[in-house]
Design brief:
2 strands, mainly alpha, 3 helices, Arc Repressor Mutant, subunit A, two-stranded antiparallel ribbon
């Protein structure tokens, strides 16, 4: 985990969210796909910071790096 992400079973059904908010990281990822830039995402969600969005990306990178993928 990192300082921007928290997982609380009482918040958003235990899904990872931006610390101190109820914004799931999946929303951030979806919005990045839609807007195609962090700057446009921040205009849609002015309560977020650039550092928080980078923290989401770092969290996702870490999760992928530490996941054993089964090859078919």
């Amino acid at each position: 985990m990192n300082k921007y992400i928290e997982i609380d079973p009482l918040r958003c059904n235990g899904k990872p969210v931006i610390r101190g908010t109820r914004i799931p990281i999946t929303i951030i990822l979806d919005q990045l796909v839609e807007t195609e830039s962090i700057e446009k995402l921040l205009k849609k969600y002015p309560e977020l910071t650039y550092s928080q969005v980078k923290g989401v990306l770092a969290y996702c990178h870490s999760m992928i790096n530490h996941t054993e993928l089964e090859q078919v």
